[in-house]
Design brief:
- The relative contact order is 0.16.
- The protein has helices spanning 2-32, 37-42, 45-65, 67-84, 94-122, 128-183, 205-225, 228-235, 241-260, 262-269, 285-306, 312-341, 347-376, 378-396.
- It has a single domain, classed as Growth Hormone, Chain: A (Up-down Bundle), CATH 1.20.1250.20.
- The protein is built from 14 helices and no strands.
- It is 79% helix and 0% strand.
- It starts with a helix and ends in a 10-residue tail after the last helix.
């Protein structure tokens, strides 16, 4: 069990490094070519759009052919996406890069859905504390490595150039794919009963409600984080691209570290000083609702303070730090709950549907972020974020809770 968990985690880590590095390479390279931040953000629209489609269909595919095959498919598709960037510079058009990003989006969500679903199958049903810790570790380390990937992308771009960086990552990931083919357990997560395509949409009220909450949660983050924040840092605060990229990379790494520690932090928040996440302190729907309410207050407070005479820089940076900690707790709780709620047979169907909602939230947030910031400014993005989070809190009221002892 631990060996398979290590293989799955290693696959996910390797993929995540290339995913973060590729994003930073595209941002910096097209910034050097003179594209505006909004134009650069639009390069990633297909990445998010195809993530929606992939999560919905990928869960069904994983249940039919096995999660080992969908995970390996994600790895090789990322190799192909990176290889597409090796064409001569004259052929490296916006359309071509968007196509490569679309393929990378498919690869990323196949890999993520497979990794999150597989953990459900490696943990005994009565070990919910262990499940929470393993999910938190996988999710948190992924985001920390995505931040490290930002640094890696910038370094490779500086040392090897755009094509050299893409080639080095493609070769490295190809080796990971070959090892995965040999070591990953076959038929992992393959459903005993072949699910029909009509079973793509979840029939579970708990999963439907959690998926809606997840869509709103990530829409609330990306409505100000994806476009509005980096453009504000650049245009209003006067940061250069390296300062902006380095800060956002550090933020994501810290965010991932908080996610990895979420079981211990949740335990302390529940009043269990030992830090154990077992027993009655394993989170439930009530935990998700409370953390969502707390998160709602943060973007609203930042928006109010930006309208005062206080300096915008410290207000925004300080608020972003607090937002990152509380958002990481929300995200880690959601990631545990979907794996906990998912059925054992055909787990990838439920997880895939949930991460489809996650990708839809990112897509909505990305599009709103550019439009709102351009038309009404950062404060408007923050108020919409607070509204999304308020709706997340309301939706979370109906999530299942632990049975209280009689």
């Amino acid at each position: 069990m631990n060996q398979q968990y290590a293989i799955i985690t290693g696959n996910y880590w390797a993929f995540t490094l290339t995913d973060g590095a590729l994003r930073m390479m595209v941002v910096l390279h097209f910034n050097q070519l003179g594209y505006s931040p909004l134009q650069i953000a639009l390069l990633f629209v297909f990445y998010e759009l195809f993530g929606v489609i992939t999560n919905l269909t990928g869960g069904w595919l994983g249940a039919r052919i096995g999660l080992n095959r969908t995970m390996n498919a994600g790895l090789i598709l990322q190799v192909i996406a990176l290889s597409m960037l090796l064409v001569p510079a004259t052929m490296l058009s916006v359309g071509w890069v968007m196509a490569a990003q679309a393929l990378s989006g498919i690869a990323k969500d196949l890999n993520k859905m497979s990794a999150k679903s597989a953990i459900k199958l490696l943990v005994p049903p009565n070990a919910q504390g262990m499940l929470y810790r393993w999910v938190a570790l996988l999710t948190g380390s992924k985001n920390a490595l995505k931040g490290a990937g930002f640094f890696l992308g910038g370094a490779l771009l500086t040392v090897l150039g755009f094509q050299g960086a893409a080639a080095s990552m493609a070769i490295s990931l190809l080796l990971v794919w070959l090892l995965s083919l040999m070591l990953l357990k076959t038929d992992l997560g393959k459903s005993k009963n072949k699910p029909r395509f009509s079973e793509l949409f979840s029939k579970s009220a708990a999963i439907n409600r959690l998926s809606l909450a997840r869509m709103l949660l990530f829409g609330a983050r990306d409505v100000w984080f994806v476009v509005a924040l980096p453009v504000f840092l650049s245009q209003t605060l006067g940061w250069d691209s390296w300062q902006t990229g380095g800060f956002l990379a550090g933020w994501i790494m810290a965010y991932g570290a908080v996610q990895a520690m979420a079981p211990r932090l949740q335990s302390f928040a529940s009043g269990n000083g030992s830090g154990s996440s077992s027993g009655q302190h394993t989170p439930d729907g009530r935990s998700a609702m409370r953390w969502a309410v707390l998160l709602t207050l943060i973007p609203a407070t930042i928006a109010v303070l930006l309208g005062t005479t206080l300096p915008a820089g410290p207000v925004l940076i300080g608020g972003l730090m607090i937002f990152g900690v509380v958002f990481a707790m929300n995200s880690a709780l959601h990631s545990f709950l979907i794996v906990s709620y998912a059925r054992d047979d055909g787990v990838s169907l439920d997880v895939g549907f949930y991460y489809m909602a996650n990708a839809m939230g990112r897509l909505i947030g990305t599009l709103l972020s550019g439009w709102l910031f351009q038309s009404a400014g950062l404060a408007a993005c923050l108020w919409v974020s607070a509204l999304f989070l308020l709706l997340t809190s309301v939706v979370s009221i109906g999530l299942p809770r632990h049975q209280q002892p009689g």
